[in-house]
Amino acid sequence: MKKITISTEFNVFESLDQLPEEIKILMEEAIAIRKKAYAPYSKFRVGAAILLDNGKTVLGSNQENAAYPSGLCAERVAIFQAGAIYPEAKILKLAISATSDAKPVTSPIPPCGSCRQSIAEYEFKQNTPIEIYFMGESGEIYKSDSLTNLLPLVFDKNFL
Ligand code: THU
Question: Going from the N-terminus, what domains does the chain have, and what CATH number goes with each?
Fold first, then answer.
């Protein structure tokens, strides 16, 4: 038996003002779009903003459903929209912000496991890393240089 260790790392920004200007603008778009979330059940509102290499920005917010699993997270709404509208474009950056009608959200909210797997698909497809920035409604912002930092041992097409 042997043991393997997989390490991962993130950069941490203390506030929006510490972000590079381009990312601050992208995060502000994620913050604005989260207000349009359809979240009558969880009251948890997530916004996602994607910057593409063609200069376009694609947005998403979570869309819930009375049949709970039929809803979709903000990140997948955004990334599937990017894939559907701009299939040739590379995804450079993804900004995520979350808030709740029920309580303050002050810690960084990372993408859920299903969203990580979905984002991974596009990293493999385009063969370049996607920078991911995530935050709550206030507080620190975490930056991951690539999806693989968030999902070590990712399942990908090479296993098929
Ligand atoms: N949600 C997202 O939009 N992104 C995530 O990565 C985590 C969860 C949404 C799904 C659901 O509408 C609500 O937040 C509560 O789980």
Answer: 20-151 (3.40.140.10)
